[in-house]
Amino acid sequence: MRTTLRITEIFHSLQGETRRMGLPTVFVRLTGCPMRCGYCDSAYAFTGGKTVEIDVVMQQIRDFGCKTICVTGGEPLAQKAVHLLFQQLCDEGFDVSVETGGGQPIDTVDSRVSRVLDIKTPGSGEMHNMHWPNVDAVNQNDEIKFVLVDRADYEWARDKVRAEQLDLRAPVIFSPVWESLKPADLAQWVIDDRLPVRVQVQLHKILWGDKPGV
Fold first, then answer.
1. How far is the CA of 79 from the CAs of 75, 91, 94, 162, in angstroms?
2. Would you say 121 and 153 are in contact if contact means Cβ atoms under 8 Å apart?
């Protein structure tokens, strides 16, 4: 197995999403992604980056003195060596989550890792690249996230949550695309429909704006 990863950045910030929102977190952003969602806010991670030994990545993480780790991208699961990173992080007692776009199988991810599964909506332009068996692989240690562009996206996601009872499989998050869908509108739709999901905005963008590395 490879012992290197292509890394775009490693930084310490607050988690802006998921049930870990607000927690100081070390982010490991891997380079490369096979998807091209129209609203992507990390397109700078599609290319470039540096090849780094996993042992070096581990030491950089330790140096921050933070136990909460988020492996993200790009698409982190597109690099097979990420599984070695997961194992080492979990073995050392870190609280690890991975944010995946849903196009790669998640059933091989270390069971100690919380998998944040992004289900692609029609508005993403990437539904055809979803690995749909992932929906059956999630559990209560994971989270399901829908990033919503507009009302049509919302209705599609609402109907999918209801039809497949996704809220019984894992916590479900509805997140509006930054500066595209008004959070207050999304909140009202969820309330009106009595939908058992969490509405969430991106805390890091509220605090620091739409820029890399925060």
1. 8, 20, 20, 33
2. yes
At 92-146, the pLDDT tens digits run 999 999 999 999 999 999 999 999 999 999 999 999 999 999 999 999 999 999 9
Q: Could you tell me which residues are beta bridge partners of residue 10?
A: 28
Residues in the chain: 214
Structure tokens at 121: 């909506």
Phi then psi for residue 97, to 5 deg, are -125, 155
Distance of CA 78 to the CA centre of its chain: 14
Q: Which tokens is 146 given?
A: 């829908």
The H or E element containing residue 52 is strand 50-53
Residue with tokens 């499989």: 169
Q: DSSP assignment of 82-142, as one string? A: HHHHHHHHHHTT-EEEEEE-SSS--TTS-TTSEEEEEPPPGGGT-GGG--TTHHHH--TTS
The answer to whether the CB of 158 falls within 8 A of the CB of 184 is no
93: which 2 tokens?
Answer: 């007692």
Q: CA–CA separation, 125 vs 38, rounded Å?
A: 7
Helix axes 151-164, 183-193, angle to 10 degrees: 40
Q: Which residues are registered as beta bridge partners of 51? A: 6
Query: Do the bridges between strand 24-30 and strand 4-14 make them parallel or antiparallel, or are there none, so unpaired?
Result: antiparallel
What is the pTM (predicted TM-score) of this model?
0.92
